[in-house]
Amino acid sequence: MRTRLYQFADDSMLGRRIGEPGNVKGTDYIAREFARLGLKPGGDNGTWYQELPWGPLGFDRNASRFIVAGDRAPLLGGTDWIPAVPVTNAIGGRAEFTNVPTVFAGRWNDTTALDPNRFRGRVAVFLGGPMATGGGRGGRGGPQRCDALPDRFGAAAAVIADAAAAAARGGRGGRAGGNPAAADTMDARATAAGAVALVFIGLESTSATAIRAAFATRMGIQPGTAPPARPELPAAVITASVANKLFGKPVAELNVADIGKSVTGAWNDAWRKGPVAARNVIAILPGSDPARANEYVLVGAHNDHNGVAATAVDHDSVRAVNTVTRRQGGNDPACIPTADQQRRIDSMIARARSIRPPRADSINNGADDDGSGSMLMLEIAERFAKERPARSIIFISHQGEEGGLRGSRWFVDHPTVPLENIVAAHNMDMVGKGRVTEVKYGGPTSVQLLGARRLSREFGDIIDSVNAVRTETMAIDRSWDVTANPMRRFCRSDQVNYVRKNVPVVYISLGYTQDYHQVTDEPQYIDYEHSARLGRFVYDVMWAIAVRKDRPAIAGHDPAYPVC
Ligand SMILES: [Zn+2]
């Protein structure tokens, strides 16, 4: 495990970001190991790989049009309007409508019902929009004092902090900061009322960065390769003066369902294949029982991480600050330390300086996230490769978990074995660090498990009964697996896509630590004994499922848990 992880999380892998050469090196290594262990390729066309259509995409400023009927010239992109960046299952990237009447829809995220008789086939114009609704991180006016921030360390504290934050926002939510434009917080009233496009008034309050980004090139999956779960409408953001022109009066005087001038829109989020492959790596160990070999026990982890940061920081200073003030790393906002905290930080930095000079660091190595899961999957594969359980085992190294759970989504939408034949899935993410000093309820045998019983009570029972009879009992922490979903924990890794497709799945982690999404997530901080102990446990659980007579029975989605 140690030998593997020092290679996989080496600086030469450059943070293994999707679509970058470092990730190709990392996935090459995983495929080579699968081959060396004697497994069978489980990707596309008899290969180890399942390639995702990944590449640059964006709106062409010169080809994008937004025209108000009666105007002699189109509106000026970037000044009068911008196309909204697509959001899966909410905002689409392609507009093609001609002379369609606009209708004022009131405030975005309001609850006023929109009458389909007024909105069907028309363009719904909202005040505000998803670009303006994000709470963001850190709040207004710079960083706060650390002792003024709510305690989010561990699931119970996070539930309380999340609930307080939701109450402060007016009751909606359960989101933990960040991403303002997620489909699950989208106002779907206009879509439900049959509108053909959305317009948001508020370009003046949109950040200069977001306006620039509208016509910039991004990297992404080829649009249209998977049917959206919910209808996607194209959307544009306009200024208040354009709105005034549409409706002939100031926005403040508008009433819901007021009809405005017709508009014509044409923009397209055009995509092309990128120069560097983005791929899942998949291997199979065929089962020994002809009757059960077409059924699979799945184990997965994600091979990508966050690449290289734009600016370098001093490694030891960042780690000292985060150890003291951001115990869950990037989950916690930066804050101003108290005098006592500052003393502890200074002493940690002084200790580091006594053995080495400052070290500039910009590489997000992702040793724990999710080098640990990826390498532990190989350790488990190595052990299975010497055995032949009745059912087959499928090993999947997911691409692009960071920023979109893309590889797991691609796999469940384009499975290389029948999805209904996957009897149970095990997703390991951050399985390298769970010391009692690092994680709430941590310790040498700790493991956080989430979700096993959401679809199949029996799957959860199997895990518990395996643990009960082992000599090396794990201390299973289920505090994160509660319906309040602290910090949206369950929704943030690849298990989401399996549970959506009715595959029983357990999320296995040792927990968030101070190195989460930091340049300090490096292999020297991993607790290899703990990882190895967890690997033996996961192997035992998978073995039990692979040899038992019946697959875990699916009871259906437990309605007590929110759907991601
Ligand atoms: Zn991860």
Which descriptors apply to this entry?
ten-stranded mixed beta sheet; 21% strand; nine-stranded mixed beta sheet; Aminopeptidase; Glucose Oxidase, domain 1; binds zinc ion; 564 residues; 21 strands; alpha/beta; 28% helix
Report on the architecture of this protein.
This protein is of the alpha/beta class. The chain folds into two domains: 7-53 and 276-314 and 360-547, Zn peptidases (Aminopeptidase, 3-Layer(aba) Sandwich); 57-134 and 180-269, Glucose Oxidase, domain 1 (3-Layer(bba) Sandwich). Helix content is 28%, strand content 21%. It is built from 15 helices and 21 strands. The protein has helices spanning 2-8, 21-36, 116-119, 155-169, 189-192, 208-214, 240-247, 315-325, 339-353, 367-384, 406-413, 452-455, 457-469, 495-500, 528-547; strands at 40-41, 49-52, 54-59, 65-68, 81-83, 91-92, 94-107, 123-127, 197-201, 218-221, 233-238, 259-271, 278-285, 296-302, 308-314, 360-363, 392-398, 422-428, 446-450, 475-477, 505-509. The strands form three sheets. Strands 3, 4, 5, 6, 7, 8, 9, 10, 11 and 12 form a ten-stranded mixed β-sheet that branches. Strand 7 (94-107), helix 3 (116-119) and strand 8 (123-127) form a beta-alpha-beta unit. Helix 1 crosses helix 10 (367-384). Mean pLDDT is 94; it is low at 133-139 and 172-180. Bound molecules: zinc ion (ZN). Residues 302, 369-370, 401, 429-430, 493 line the site of zinc ion.
